[in-house]
Structure formats: structure tokens, C-alpha cells
């Protein structure tokens, strides 16, 4: 590891929890240079919903590259882009009654968020964006301004303005619909809140601790935005592409956001790709007004198209994901019950799940114990208090059972149950 400590910046993070040299990966497994097998419940932070080196996607990618097809094209028209767009409309948009235009803003999720925020301000002529407690939307300045984590915000080094933070669902007393606080500020001309251009929200806060917004709360928020002519942006970068079951995480709530951001698993293969989707009437961009050199990576179009065709032409994959999510939730519930006296609990929806360990450092210790036993996990939440599970959606039931047993052993090793007085 000397090469990395000598040359790579101290900003590196995941490698500190996984001190080994990874070499190969297949499906739900990653192998280090000694050949040791690790079961992956991280999936590239949700970028590998279809597993590592998915054979169907890999075959299409190799064929594309071996044929000297276009790799880099800025936003020029290419066969790969045409095929992706037509498939995305046919397989995803039309069956859901969504008439979205598609923007390729750059290679990563934060690019999609920056484009969404800029577009909302351009459309409305307003500056303020409302975001929510414990939300996370990226590490560039605009995205950081609508991110809650104080450590990440502090890294900006400049004021993060033109944003207002509101309580996420169940952040307050668990009884009052928390968006009513936003309503009261909008209704009161003395509240000091400028009328927002948009509201940006995750239906399940991944980095914020697997906090799940109820369908009732999401519908109420959408209705409030419509009432006050505020654009609704759903950040589906980590929870989209089937992570919660449906392709879009907001489908269960029956809402239609004005703008949607997608990235991570939209390429299906871990290749960089991001989309900003918006209602057709909101496409007010001038040519070249928002652009970037890598805003449409053709190999990612190829693998993304194959993923859409392979997994989303019917409801089989969605139903399998929901069933697996129920299994994971049930097993996590059993672990929490075993350690109820220590305050352990669970959160989540679909295949985005979390085990909440309230004592300082316990979740990190659980993940460290899991790593030693051959399971890759990460923490999330403002205090790193949640052991987070994001397995590939293609993980088999047997692999899920194996990983959850490793997790149960890791919790037993890490959690200290209070002794009776």
C-alpha cells in the first residue's frame, strides 16, 4: 500500500476501511490480489445495481469497442446515443406516462444536480432552492449548498448561499407532516423565506442515513410545490434504476416531478453517465448554455441500453428486487431484535437498507468486523451511525443469506449489550 500512501491524496476514504488491494470482480463478489473473495454489499455506492462485469453488458461493450465505434463525441449525434434515447423512451418513459426531455449534463451525479438547479433558476427567475435535513446531492458548490452534512459543506471554503433547509419527513416529532413548516413559511410574508425556485428531495436519503420519506409526505410535498408554483426536483441518483423496486423511486408515491436527476446505475456497468430529465415545457436552454466535454459517454450508452432491455421490459426484475428487499428487511429486523437492549433498529425500502447503531463508533466497528469476515459495507448518517446495505440487485438469495449471516456475526462482535444494574 506504500504507493498509495506516498502518492495519493489524503482525501481517499473507502480504502481506509478496506485495507486490501482489489484485483477482480464478478457479480456480487470482489477479489483481492491474493485471491480472497469479498461479498459486495456496497455496489459502488449504488453504481452497480446489475453487479460487477455483468456478462450481457460486458459482451455488448466489448463488441462496441472492438468495432472501432465512437467513444468520445461531446454531444454530437451517434448511433449509441440514438439507441439509448429510443430505448429509454420506449422502456422507461412511455410505460410510465412520462414526457421528459433528456439532458446529458456531464459524467457524474453532481453534474446532473448542478444542471437541475441552474435550469430551475433560469425558468423561474428565482434564486432560492429548498432542500432537506440530512440530504446529500453532491460535492460541487451548487450541490453542496443543498446538502446537509456539515463536514462536507465545510470543505467548500466559501459561503453556500441561495438555499434554505427544511425538515425531512419524520425529522421533527414524527406526528406533524414536516412539510407543513415549509407551508407556514410560504404563507407568512414575514418569514424571511424568498419564494423558492425549486425544492430538491431524495425519496430515500442514502448518505443521510437511509431515511425513508413516506408516500403521504411525498404527495403532500408535491401538492405544495404545485400550489405555490415551485418546481419539484427528485434526486434519484442513488435510489433510482430500481434500487427501491420500481425504476424510479418516486413511482410508489404516484407523483410526477418536474425535474429528475439520474446517474450511478444508469449506465449499468459502472461507467460514468448522468441524466437530467425535465418536463418538455421546461426545456428553455439555449444551445451550449450548459455543457461539458464528457457529456455523453458512448460506451455508457451501450451498456445502459442493454441494461434497460435486459431488466426493464417487464415487471419480473422489479418484483424480484422487492422480494429480496423484504428478505433483507426481515433479517435485519431479527438482528435488531437480538440487540434491542442496545438500541439497534432498522430503516430502509427495497434493496436500500440500514442497521442503526446508536452508540458512537459502533456502525464503523460493525463494518470493520464485516470486512474481516469478507463482506464489504459502508456507513452513512450524520454521525456514521448507520451500517448501510446496497447489494447489487442481481445478488442471489443465497448470497444475501450469506452476507446477512456475516453481518449478524459482525454485530455480535461489535455491539456491547448494556448489563443490568
Work out the number of β strands. Answer: 17
| CATH class (first level) name of the largest domain | Alpha Beta
- At the fold tier of CATH, the topology name of the largest domain is Aspartate Aminotransferase, domain 2
Our count of helices gives 14
Integer average pLDDT: 95
Outline type: globular
Spatially, the strands of the biggest sheet line up as 4-12-11-10-7-5-6
Fold and architecture overview:
The protein is an alpha/beta fold. The chain has two domains: 2-54 and 315-414, Aspartate Aminotransferase, domain 1, CATH 3.90.1150; 58-311, 3-Layer(aba) Sandwich (Aspartate Aminotransferase, domain 2), CATH 3.40.640.10. The protein is built from 14 helices and 17 strands. It has helices at residues 2-7, 14-17, 43-46, 55-66, 79-93, 109-124, 141-145, 150-154, 179-187, 215-227, 298-311, 316-338, 362-372, 397-414; strands at residues 22-26, 29-32, 37-40, 100-103, 129-132, 163-166, 198-201, 204-205, 211-212, 231-235, 259-262, 275-279, 345-349, 352-356, 375-376, 378-380, 386-389. A seven-stranded mixed beta sheet has the order 4-12-11-10-7-5-6, sandwiched between helices. Strands 1-2-3-15 form a four-stranded mixed beta sheet. Strand 16 and strand 17 (386-389) form a beta hairpin. The longest helix is centred in the C-terminal third of the chain and has 23 residues, at 316-338. It starts with a helix and ends in a 7-residue tail after the last helix. The mean pLDDT is 95.
Amino acid at each position: 500500500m506504500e504507493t498509495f500512501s506516498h502518492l495519493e491524496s489524503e482525501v481517499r476514504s473507502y480504502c481506509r476501511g478496506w485495507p486490501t488491494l482489489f484485483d477482480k470482480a464478478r457479480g456480487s463478489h470482489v477479489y483481492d490480489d491474493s485471491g480472497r473473495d469479498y461479498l459486495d454489499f456496497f455496489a459502488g455506492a449504488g453504481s452497480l445495481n446489475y453487479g460487477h462485469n455483468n456478462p450481457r453488458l460486458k459482451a455488448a461493450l466489448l463488441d462496441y469497442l472492438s468495432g472501432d465505434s465512437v467513444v468520445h463525441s461531446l454531444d454530437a449525434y451517434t448511433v449509441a446515443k440514438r439507441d439509448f434515447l429510443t430505448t429509454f423512451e420506449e422502456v422507461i418513459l412511455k410505460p410510465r406516462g412520462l414526457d421528459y426531455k433528456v439532458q446529458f449534463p456531464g459524467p457524474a451525479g453532481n453534474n446532473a444536480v448542478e444542471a437541475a438547479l441552474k435550469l430551475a433558476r433560469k425558468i423561474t427567475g428565482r434564486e432560492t432552492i429548498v432542500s432537506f435535513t440530512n440530504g446529500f446531492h453532491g460535492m460541487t458548490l451548487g450541490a453542496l449548498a443543498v446538502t446537509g452534512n456539515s463536514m462536507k459543506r465545510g470543505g467548500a471554503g466559501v459561503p453556500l448561499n441561495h438555499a434554505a433547509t427544511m425538515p425531512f419527513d419524520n425529522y421533527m416529532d414524527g406526528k406533524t407532516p414536516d412539510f407543513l413548516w415549509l407551508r407556514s413559511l410560504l404563507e407568512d410574508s414575514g418569514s424571511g423565506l424568498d419564494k423558492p425556485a425549486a425544492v430538491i428531495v431524495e425519496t430515500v436519503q442514502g448518505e443521510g442515513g437511509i431515511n425513508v420519506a413516506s408516500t403521504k409526505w411525498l404527495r403532500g410535498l408535491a401538492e405544495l410545490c404545485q400550489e405555490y408554483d415551485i418546481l419539484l426536483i427528485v434526486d434519484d441518483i442513488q435510489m433510482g434504476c430500481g434500487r427501491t423496486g420500481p425504476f424510479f423511486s418516486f413511482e410508489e408515491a404516484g407523483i410526477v416531478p418536474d425535474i429528475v436527476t439520474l446517474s450511478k446505475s444508469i449506465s449499468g456497468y459502472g461507467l460514468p453517465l448522468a441524466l437530467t430529465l425535465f418536463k418538455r415545457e421546461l426545456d428553455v436552454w439555449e444551445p451550449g448554455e450548459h455543457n461539458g466535454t464528457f457529456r455523453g459517454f458512448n460506451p455508457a450508452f451501450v451498456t445502459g441500453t442493454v441494461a434497460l432491455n435486459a431488466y426493464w421490459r417487464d415487471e419480473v426484475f422489479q418484483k424480484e428486487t422487492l422480494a429480496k428487499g423484504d428478505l433483507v428487511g426481515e433479517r435485519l429486523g431479527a438482528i435488531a431484535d437480538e440487540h434491542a437492549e442496545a438500541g439497534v433498529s432498522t430503516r430502509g425500502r427495497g434493496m436500500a437498507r440500514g442497521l442503526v447503531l446508536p452508540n458512537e463508533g459502533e456502525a464503523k466497528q460493525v463494518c470493520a468486523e464485516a470486512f474481516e469476515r469478507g463482506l464489504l459495507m459502508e456507513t452513512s448518517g450524520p454521525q456514521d451511525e448507520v451500517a448501510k446495505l446496497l447489494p447489487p440487485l442481481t445478488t442471489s438469495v443465497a448470497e444475501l443469506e450469506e452476507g446477512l449471516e456475516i453481518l449478524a456475526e459482525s454485530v455480535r462482535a461489535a455491539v456491547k449489550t448494556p448489563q443490568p444494574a
